[in-house]
Amino acid sequence: MQGRTDCLKKLSFPTRVVRHIKSRKMYYVWAAIVASFATIVVYFRLPFIVFPVLLFVAFLASGGKDFPRVFFRTILRDIKGFSRFANLLITTRLHVKNKHTISDIFQETVSKHPQKAAIVFEKRTWTFKEVDEYSNRIANFFKSQGYQKGDVVALYLENCPEFICIWLGLSKLGVVTALINTNLRSDSLFHCISVASVRAVIFGTDLSGPMKEIRTKIPEVVELYSLGVKSTFMASVVHLNQKIEASSPVMSAVNHPKCFADVLLYIYTSGTTGLPKAAVVTTARYFRNAFGVICALKVRNDDVVYCPMPLYHSAAGIVGVGMCFIAGCTLSLRRKFSASNFWDDCVETKATVIQYIGELCRYLLSQPHRPSENKHSVRLAIGNGLRPQIWKEFQERFSIKEIGEFYGSTEGTASVINIDSTPGACGFMSEILPSVYPVVIFKVDPDTGELVRGPDGLAVRTKPGEVGQIVGKSLRGDPSLRFDGYLNSLETKKKIAHDVFRKGDAAFLSGDLVFRDEFGYIYFHDRTGDTFRWRGENVSTAEVESVMSKVLGLRDVVVYGVLVPGTEGRAGMAAIVDPEYKVDLAELAASLKKLLPSYACPMFLRIVHSVDLTGTFKLQKSKLRNEGFDIGVIEDQLFYYDSKEKTYLALDEVKYEQIIRGEIRIAETMDHMHRAAQQIVKQVVDNIGRIKPHLDVKEVISMGSFAEGTKICSPNEFDFMACFDFLSRNENVRIEGTEGCQPGYMVAFLNSGFDKAMANITRLLYKDICCIHHEGLRAEFVETLKEVVKAMLMKKVVTPHGIMVIKGSDYLALKLEWHKFKENYEGPEIYNGLCDRDLILATSYSLDIGVDIMPAVSVEDLTPLSDIHGFPSHVFGMTGNVKFHLVCKVSGQSPHAPYLHISHATTEVFLVRHLHPIHKKCYRVLKYLLTHNTYFNRPIKDISLSSYVFKTAVLFHEYEKLCSGTPDIVTCCIEIIRYVRVKLREGVFPPFLMRTTNVWGQCYKIPVSDAWRPSGLDREICSFDWCFVLWFQLWRQFLGKALTIFQKIKLKLQTEEPETSDSSTLLNDASLTSLNSMSQTRDLVEYVPNRYDSFLAEFEVLREDAFVITTKYSKDAKDTQTFSFISRCPSEKVWELVLPKFPEYLSRIESVCSREMSIPKEEFEEVVEVG
């Protein structure tokens, strides 16, 4: 410590002056303004009235352009609030000075109204004098038993006047009363008694059962007293009724020191997140909370307050009883809340003020209409927890003029109150003089929940509309604004933050998230522990609960976040009370979509018979949250939201496993991107059809990895197939194979009945009047696409997560741009066609999206296709109604021949989607390693290794029964990699469907350009040859590294070789059982070298040496050299000269990529899910 102080230097005088001025900058600025205005008034001899006018104008100008409007809108409210707050402060200071206690304040009320009704309970009226006398009897008895200041007595009693009198009488001795929740049992009950170190427990005879359960746990030194007419049948229990009757009603003298900061009560938290905590309530806190409500809402001594709330809670025990003790009101008390008798009681007792809390208002609204609900005299409702969604309905239906919604906690110093019945608000902060009230809303980190700090180390205040934590000052010198915390000092420390308002201060952290509007009105958002993040957004459980409850007819709803493997944050889950299973899930899903942002809609539903409530009508969440959506633990009915069906579907074991393995994706932004792109494509092709009817598209089909469910990153492209209507009709077009045609190609002929009037229209489309030509079809589609997109530029599709904007076209592709919203949008434009107007919305990022559109002819009749050499007849019957299509693709045999290529894209999508979950995961993992920026691969724009290789290998692995046993990720990945290595050495790798072609030819992509020629390489080496050698070496290196890492993981896990299992275990869909017979088909087409395989012809020499085959690079490729003649050179020379240059080649790729080329081993193990 000495070393640290030695290095500190004393600040120079100028530095101290500068820091002093900076810390009081605002004061000096206003001092200068006042001096300037005074000088102007004196110098120009202006009337004195001008001086305050100038100051007022300067004040209005200091807050910005909107400040004058805010000022005049809120000035009367603020004046009213400040005057009432000043009354609270002055009265509190007087009591502090005079060292009053609650019993002293109550004594003043008794002296004013001794015979006035203090408490009305079950047809009996207790006057203030009777309450005082009963409390005196309590004090005298316990004084005779040796109780003195500092002792603690637990009170475990139902609502009754005796409850109030007991703690009031004990307070006259300085004894602290711990108010125990009557709903507690067993361990929770014992915890509350033991944590307070009580000397005695007073309990009602109707609660003797729970006391018996824990009697053996309670130390013998703790005295037990019962109150009531029933017998307890418990030994060593003193019956208190007789003792009270025998005690004097006149208070005997006490000589203990009294102070306004004395501890009065222990009130326990509701325990929604764990065991209840005992909050320390001093006389000062009790008075401030009660008198603050009285002042703010102008409660009168002639008011009758109806209180059905439990007295062990601060709402009734402090605010309700406080209005009686301090303001002299009559308290109409009920033993337990009854929604059906609520308004009848109000009419009978002539209540003018009612108290509510939690879900009570919703329960009242759910009751059938009755005459008494509008015959009452209630003018004011006081409480907290009235949800904004039902505020107006509650106020209008029950004809209540004022609602005094407040925010506060038993132990906290942060409290606000709504004094003008603004709907939804729980209080306000002055925007004119925000520093007057000791409560501020500070920003919090959405991930950690910690306060956000500025450069000066202090907490950063929120702006209007921003969600933050409400924080109150903790002032040591003011007992009413000092945070006294809990009996547990560790829990107290968690609620205190330092250096919040200023350096060295202490502040109370409420743990509640709120926000304020531009006028300073404060609205409750959620508890920090209840709020969860989903898809990068904060979800308020309170808001979702309120909306769902209203949609469901005011049913009980509990919302919480649950973890879903493979996703960030927590998905929303709602427990709905529906014992009769009447909820319409489809209607619920549709309603939530309209009322909530997509990220806030629950992904899971749980239908329950009831939910646990606290005594203050708060919903218990901890148990529900811990159980999540685990179908093995939960016996209730579970549902999950299906983003395709747009409704909730039953969650069974199969669906649960698919969600756990990531096969069923919980709705994401990607879905909105895809849907927006699909809507744009549909609009584009519709416009093409309007311009040229023969190009009318009847169906747009999603293709590629998104449709397969194997997309592993945020997409930058989507693939769609546009199927023509006119050309897909059997009466217009017939499909035939042609002798000598390259495998996989067909000819489409126009039928003889073709309308001659279409001849002129289709001259470009067809080579002649009888045969469709791929070149003409493609050219006309591209030309029309360009024309249509040009007219649609900058139009957009609006989604809840962002907008997709049309930016242009490029050949058969659309250029789109995705803009992600920072906050979800709920406007009418969502998925409502193309939007023209600008949306001024904040976006978090933008992304260029490419959308490939493949024009195609769908084939209804497969008979002509089945006769073609190489057609995959072996998949008939296993793919259901999946169609084949003919697409515009140049034939390698004769580029100008009128051939259309057979596409198996829809079949591949079907097969991949129905892979075994483990095999599908294997494909995703291998694809991740191959296409992402890892040390396995060196990705660059013009050089890549295609993941189609692994798609083919995985299809063979499952459907040809190459899996050695029960699938697991590591073992199957090893087997798949080995299979690909064999095919690489052989140079022949037929696709799973079209067995007469070669995968390697489709997956060869490397630029034929000297830009990548290794330095010092002999110029006579053919570019095709050395590029091929490098491509081959890249594949060999990747497969070797991948195999090594999987073998290391397998060794680490000490995985034993799986036993051979029945092939039926590889199938996860009953509809695919026909696959079992596939391998037994005798007419499977196998690959044989043929004249159409250009790879053999071009690289025969290299094939002999490298055992591999590849293809000539496309002449249409950009930035490449075109070779009319491929020189032949000795293969030995190629390998001899190129391979030593391979490290240099990799180094150059890395320098161009300029990216990190490694992936942590831990991350990889997480990818393959072997932990």
Automatic annotation (TrEMBL):
Q: Where are the transmembrane segments?
A: 26-43
Classification via InterPro entries = AMP-bd_C (IPR025110), AMP-bd_C_sf (IPR045851), AMP-binding_CS (IPR020845), AMP-dep_synth/lig_dom (IPR000873), ANL_N_sf (IPR042099), MAB21L/cGLR (IPR024810)
Instruction: Give the principal location in a single coarse category.
Output: membrane
Any one GO MF annotation of this record: ATP binding
Q: Which parts of the sequence belong to the AMP-binding enzyme C-terminal domain?
A: 543-618
EC annotation from Swiss-Prot or TrEMBL: 6.2.1.3
Entry annotated with the keyword Oxidoreductase? no
- PROSITE patterns to which the protein is assigned, alphabetical: AMP_BINDING (PS00455)
Q: Name one GO cellular component term.
A: endoplasmic reticulum membrane
Give one GO biological process term. long-chain fatty acid import into cell
- Key word Transmembrane present in the record? yes
Q: Which domain of life is it from?
A: Eukaryota
Q: Where in the cell is it found?
A: Cell membrane; Peroxisome membrane
Q: Which reaction does it catalyse?
A: tetracosanoate + ATP + CoA = tetracosanoyl-CoA + AMP + diphosphate; a very long-chain fatty acid + ATP + CoA = a very long-chain fatty acyl-CoA + AMP + diphosphate
- In what residue span(s) does the AMP-dependent synthetase/ligase domain sit? 106-471
Alphabetic keyword roster = ATP-binding, Cell membrane, Fatty acid metabolism, Ligase, Lipid metabolism, Lipid transport, Membrane, Nucleotide-binding, Peroxisome, Transmembrane, Transmembrane helix, Transport
The annotated topology with respect to the bilayer is: Multi-pass membrane protein
Entry-linked Gene3D superfamilies: 1.10.1410.40, 3.30.300.30, 3.30.460.90, N-terminal domain of ligase-like
Q: What does this protein do?
A: Acyl-CoA synthetase required for both the import of long chain fatty acids (LCFAs) (C14-C18) and the activation very long chain fatty acids (VLCFAs) (C20-C26) by esterification of the fatty acids into metabolically active CoA-thioesters for subsequent degradation or incorporation into phospholipids. The transport and fatty acyl-CoA synthetase activities are genetically separable and are thus independent activities. Esterifies VLCFAs in the peroxisome matrix. The VLCFAs are actively transported into peroxisomes by a PXA1-PXA2 heterodimeric transporter in the peroxisomal membrane.
Q: Which family does it belong to?
A: Belongs to the ATP-dependent AMP-binding enzyme family.
> What name goes with this protein?
Very long-chain fatty acid transport protein
